[in-house]
Amino acid sequence: MSKKYEEIDWGSIQHKVEDMLGNHFWSDLNHILPKRFPNVDLYETDKEGIIVVEVPGLHSTNDIQIKLDANILTVEGNVPYAYEASKQKLKLNERHTGIFSRTVKLPFHYTDEPVRAKYKNGLLEIRLNKIENDQTIAIQFEDD
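^ that's the sequence the OP posted. Answer follows.
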């Protein structure tokens, strides 16, 4: 493969596959392959790392838990099933409900300061203060 992973136009590939295999290809494939849930975005500023986790349908802090172990962030929880009809009666089922766990390796080091997390409109935003890597280290000379 000559292109770097980041340079691949995945949206274009998706449209080409759909053109070749038909409109229902992704829906049919969705029933075969396990779903990757929840979706995560991660970005950094100069001072903090921000992780945004897409988890619609949560009702309280009892539905979700965040764990940090070294530079591994784990988000675990349970999205309650919200419909009157049973799952077997759904004609199309793409939304995730039930237990989930997602682990992300953080590409930065963070401080021991409290982690901030808020949930709004189906998005969990986690903010961690970054450790400044650029440090000037004083050297102490000793006389012989």
